[in-house]
Amino acid sequence: MLSSLFISNLALIKKCEVNFKKGFNVILGQSGAGKSILIDALSFVLGAKADKTLLRTNENLMRVDAVFDDVSQNVVNVLNDLGIDFDGELVLSRTLNSDGKSVIRVNGCVVVLKTFKEITEKLMDFCGQHDNVGLINVNNHLSILDKFIGNDAYSYLNQIEGKCDELAEINKEIKNLGGDDAERNRLKEILQFQIDEIDNANLVSGEEEELNERFKFISSAENIVEKVEFALQKLDQNTESVTNNIYDAKKELNSLLEFQELANCQERLTSAYYEIKDIVDVLENVLRSTDFDPTELERIDARLDLIKNLKRKYGKSIDAILEFCANAKKRLDDLENSEFALEKLNKKKENCLKELEGLCEKLSALRKKNAIILEDKVKEELNDLQMKGTNFKVDFDRCEIGKKGFDAVKFVFSANEGQEMKDLSKTASGGELSRLLLAFKSIMLDKENTSTVVFDEIDSGISGQTAGKVALKLNKIADYIQVICITHTPVVASKGDAFILVTKESKNGETISNAASIDGDEVINQIAGLIDGNEKVSQTAITHAKKLLEEK
Which residues does 387 contact at the CB level (< 8 Å), separation at least 6? Predict the structure, then answer.
C-alpha cells in the first residue's frame, strides 16, 4: 500500500509530503484547491506520460517520490527478476525537467519506463468519474468477464493461445510447401527459373575478384600498347624517325673528324644513336611481352555485368548466390515430394482445429455459466446502490476463433423495469455508470492484483440515500485494500479512516497548494463545510458532521 507521497514543483504545489494509512483515506478540500493535483502526482510517479505543463511556473525540475510497503509477492517477484534490492519498502522516484527529460528510479536504481510499468501496474488502480469509459467500451467486456471467472478462464486461455500458436506454425509449414496445387506449381516455376538462371551462369567461387584484377590489368595493357607503339613510331619506325635522323647526322660528320670539336659532336651522336636503339629494343620487348586481345576486355566486362545482375537478385557475393541456388534446389525438391508431407500437415491441422474448437467450447460454456452469476451479483450490488428495477445482462455472440476463443461479449443494461436493454454507452447516465463501476469494483475485490485503489469523485452527481450506499461500498472495499478517495459528499467523507486536506493560498504574487493530514476538530469542520456549503459553518452542520463520524 501507499504510505507516503512527496511532491516538489508540480502544478500549484511547491513542496509537500502527504502520509497515507491502511484503510479508507479521504482527500478533502474546496473546489479548485488542487485535489486533482495529488492524482496527477500519483499518475506521474506511477509511469503516466510526462507532461511538461505540470511543471510549476518558473521552475526547472519537478519531482515526485512515492513510498509503498506491504507490497504483494507479485511486485517482489518482478523486483527480484530485475535485480532490484528490496528490504520491505519500495521507493519510486521520478523527475522531469524543463527540457522534457524524465529520470525514473526504483529503490535508487535508474530504470526505463517500460521496466517501470511492469512494477507499477501491480501497485495501484485508478477509478475516476471518467474511468467508466473502460466499462462502456465493449472491447473490454470479455476481459472483465474472464477476470471475474479467474484462474479457470485463464487456464483455458493459455491452452487456446498455445493451440493458436501451433496452428499458425502448421499454416506456415503448409505455406512453405506451396499451399494449394496452383500456388505450389507457381512457386515451382519460379524456383526452376531461378535455379536455371544461376546454373547457366556457371559461377565459380572467387572468380569475380580474378576478373576484376584481369580487367584492371588489361585496361592498363591497352594503354601501354598504345603509348609504346606511338613511341616506337616516333623513334624508329619511319624515314623521319629519331634514330634515322641521328644516324644521318652522325654519318655526315664522319668526314670532319680531324676537327676536334666536330669529332666530339660525332662521338656524342654515336652514343645517342646506340642509347635510343637500346630504348627501342626495350620498348619492342615490352610490346612483345604484353599479350593483349582487344576483345577480351569486352568479354570480361560482360561477365562482370552478368555477376552484378545475379548479385542484385540473389545475394551480395557469388558464394551467397550459390547458397541461394542450393536452397532453391532443396526447396524445389521438397515441393516435388510435398504431397505426403502436405497430407500429414493437413491432418495435423485438422486435429489442431478440432482440439482448439473443443477448448473454445469449454471456455464458452464456462463463461456463460459465470455470466449468469455476474449478472446476479451486479444487479444485487446495484440494488444496494438504490438502483432498484435495473437490469444487467451479458450478451454472447460467436466470432472467428482466436486467442480469446470464439466469444464476443457485450454488457447491456436498462435503468428501469420494463425498459429495453441497450448498450451501456447508450442507456446509462453518468451517475448510473459511476455506480456500475463501483458495483464491479465491489464484485472484483478478490480478483484485484493491486494493493491500492484510487477513487476520484466517483460519487459525483449522487446524493441522499444513494450517497450513503456508495459510502458503505467504498468502506467495504477499504476492508480489503487501501482506498484513496477524493469526495465532496459528506456521508462518503465521514467513512474515512484517515483524512488529507488540500488547501490553496495566494501570497506575494504566487499561488500555492498544499496537502496535509488532519484529524479531530479539523475533520469535523471540513465535513460540516461539505454539509453547510457556507464559508462559515453552522453549529447544526457541525452537529450533523459529528453524528456522521460517530455512525462510521
Answer: 415, 432, 435
CA gyration radius, the chain: 45
Closest-CA residue to 15 (of 41, 36, 53):
41
- What is the 3 state secondary structure string of 111-178? ECHHHHHHHHCCCEEEEECCCCHHHHCHHHHHHHHHHHHCHHHHHHHHHHHHHHHHHHHHHHHHHHCC
Long-range Cβ pairs for the range 358-362 (8 Å, 24+): 359/156, 359/159, 359/160, 359/163, 359/405, 360/160, 360/401, 360/405, 360/406, 360/407, 362/156
Q: Which of 203, 403, 402 is nearest to 309 (CA)?
A: 203
Q: Tell me, what's the pLDDT at 351?
A: 95
Element containing residue 452 per DSSP (H, E): strand 452-456
- In three-state form (DSSP H/G/I as H, E/B as E, the rest C), the secondary structure along 387-403 is CCCCEEEEEEEEEEEEC
Spatial neighbors of 235 by CB under 8 A, at least 6 apart, are 241, 242, 243, 276, 279, 280, 283
* 508's grid cell: 506575494
Predicted structure pTM score:
0.63
Nearest to 36 by CA among 457, 497, 517: 457
Question: Which regions of the chain are under pLDDT 50?
Answer: none
Cell numbers that stand for 55 in this block: 511543471
Q: Which of 220, 352, 331 is nearest to 286 (CA)?
A: 220
DSSP SS3 for 80? helix
Give the whole-angstrom CA distance, residue 19 versus residue 7.
12
Task: Judge whether 14 and 490 are in contact, CB under 8 Å.
Answer: no
d(CA 324, CA 208): 17
How much is the pLDDT for 390?
Answer: 84
Are 481 and 450 spatial neighbours (Cβ–Cβ below 8 Å)? yes
Say if residue 102 is exposed, middle or buried (CB neighbours under 10 Å; 0-12, 13-18, 19+). Answer: middle
**Domain 1-123+497-511: top CATH class:** alpha beta
Q: Is the CA virtual torsion 527, 33, 21, 147 positive or negative?
A: positive
3-state secondary structure at position 384 = helix
- Residue 180 C-alpha cell reads as 494449394
φ/ψ (deg, to 5) at 61: -150, 130
Contacts of 26 (CB under 8 A, 6+ apart): 485, 487, 492, 493, 495, 496, 498, 499, 500
Closest by Cα among 308, 288, 320, 319 to 215: 308
What's the pLDDT at 406?
94
